[in-house]
Structures are given as structure tokens and as C-alpha cells.
Amino acid sequence: MSAKLDNVLHAPARLQIAAILSRANEAEFATIKDIVDVSDSVLSKHLSALSDAGYIKLKKAARDGRQRTWASLTSSGRKAFAAHMRALKDLMDSAEQAVSAE
């Protein structure tokens, strides 16, 4: 296997977040929370980990009288997500070859 799995993205919720953000310019906290189906605190921890790694950018602003948070992938986050997906595909291909060789 040539590509390496990314430990930051490997957590299932973080992988879901990156997948969501790879298809959108940005997504609001509540939308991500609904899709990933985690609590506010769990989502906050995952967003912080992705932000600390430089994979996402968080933007806070008032909207409809409330403070809201939006997340978007950075260019390094997009590259890391693409590399992680290649690593997962390589892993799947290796496993399929091993199974079919039996």
C-alpha cells in the first residue's frame, strides 16, 4: 500500500465532516451536526481537531439573532482528504486481491 492513512481524518465523524465539506463551499454547524448525528460537544471537539490540523477553517458570525459557526475545508484539508481517500481505496484493493487469491 503506497498511500498512508491520515490519523486526523481516520475518525469516522471527522471523515464524514470532511466528506460533507468536500462537496460544499461551507456548511453550518447545525447542518453538520444533523448529518453526522453527534452532540454539540462531540462535534465541537472534532471540528477543533480538524481546525488544529489546518484542514478546516471556522467562521463565526451572528445570523438571525444568534451566533452561528460555519466550517469550510482549506486547500491543505482538500489535499489531505483526497490522499486519505486514495489510501482507503488502496487498502480496499489490497483486501480484495487477498480475498480473491484464497
From TrEMBL:
<dbReference type="InterPro" id="IPR027395">
    <property type="entry name" value="WH_DNA-bd_dom"/>
</dbReference>
<protein>
    <submittedName>
        <fullName>Transcriptional regulator</fullName>
    </submittedName>
</protein>
<feature type="domain" description="Winged helix DNA-binding">
    <location>
        <begin position="14"/>
        <end position="92"/>
    </location>
</feature>
<dbReference type="InterPro" id="IPR036388">
    <property type="entry name" value="WH-like_DNA-bd_sf"/>
</dbReference>
<dbReference type="Pfam" id="PF13601">
    <property type="entry name" value="HTH_34"/>
</dbReference>
<dbReference type="InterPro" id="IPR036390">
    <property type="entry name" value="WH_DNA-bd_sf"/>
</dbReference>
